[in-house]
From TrEMBL, chain A:
Extent of the signal sequence: 1-26
Name the record gives this protein: Signal peptidase complex subunit 3
Organism, as annotated: Glycine soja
GO biological process, one term: protein targeting to ER
Residues that span the membrane, as ranges: none
From TrEMBL, chain B:
One cellular component term from this protein's GO annotations in UniProt: signal peptidase complex
Keywords linked to the UniProt accession: Endoplasmic reticulum, Membrane, Transmembrane, Transmembrane helix
Name used for this protein in its record: Signal peptidase complex subunit 1
Keyword Transmembrane helix: yes
Protein topology in the membrane: Multi-pass membrane protein
Transmembrane segments: 12-32, 38-59
Length: 167, 93
């Protein structure tokens, strides 16, 4: 503390240490948030359902996706990454998970949404198991913070079924 | 900056920074604004820098009081003891 340089060094070191502590506390404060998100998906139409030349089944569908994810946002939230996946079981794989749609929600105001879209990514099976297949639509989200720990969770929506015949 | 000033500046630096950190965190939390927290804290660090890093006059109120030169005469430098020479003699014997 006997010179300008020493005092400046001591101050900045202490300031950065306290800053790290504040950021850690901000991250911890996220644990006090109890989110209550809701989501709903309707499959309006199976646009087409075909077997590819290589033998894999492929589906294209029109979806109505509505969700209210506002409760995921806290003061430490930078954005929320959300994606909708079709999940089902086959003899070969106990869990098949295919992302149909995803989005980045940049703020709380955009977190309540309703969209009408066909699946953004191709719904392709590893094989030919999709005829008459029952599947879940699962909305997953990752809450990306400004500092600290990332939270992830999902809502499972069961009860969807693909047609028996190709079209 | 004297010894007392250095001690005061260190304590003052820590006190102001921690105080601003608490205020910044509370404000950020209540306003749900991480950015506000960072801005208030940054302001606190700047203020602390201006207050405690330069060598302000109020850090120089307790200068060391060096002894007066006349004290030297009251406490003369010790002279070598004659006993040393007698020890040497005994060794020779």
């Amino acid at each position: 503390m006997h010179s300008f340089g020493y005092r400046a060094n001591a101050l900045l070191t202490f300031a950065v240490t306290i800053l790290a502590l504040m950021c850690a506390m901000a991250s911890v404060s996220d644990n006090f948030n109890t989110p209550t998100p809701s989501a709903q998906v309707q499959v309006l139409n199976i646009n087409w359902f075909q077997k590819q030349p290589n033998g894999n089944d492929e589906v294209s569908m029109t979806l109505n996706i509505s969700a209210d994810l506002q409760s995921l946002f806290t003061w430490n939230t930078k954005q929320v990454f959300v994606f909708l996946a079709a999940e089902y079981e086959t003899p070969k794989n106990s869990l098949n998970q295919i992302s149909l749609w995803d989005g980045i929600i940049p703020s709380k105001e955009h977190a309540k949404f309703w969209i009408h879209t066909s699946n953004k990514y191709r719904f392709i099976d590893q094989g030919s198991n999709l005829q008459g297949k029952e599947y879940n639509l699962t909305m997953h989200w990752h809450v990306m913070p400004k500092s600290g720990k990332m939270f992830a969770d999902k809502i499972v929506m069961p009860g969807y079924r693909l047609p028996e015949e190709y079209r | 900056m004297d010894w007392q000033g250095q001690k005061i500046t260190e304590q003052l630096m820590q006190l102001i920074i921690v105080a601003f950190a608490v205020i910044a965190f509370a404000t950020g939390y209540l306003m749900a604004s991480f950015q506000m927290m960072i801005l208030i804290y940054a302001g606190g660090v700047v203020l602390t820098t201006l207050v405690t890093v330069p060598n302000w006059p109020f850090f120089n109120h307790h200068p060391l009081k060096w002894l007066d030169p006349s004290e030297l005469e009251k406490h003369p430098k010790p002279q070598p003891s004659p006993n040393v020479s007698s020890k040497k003699k005994s060794v020779k014997k």
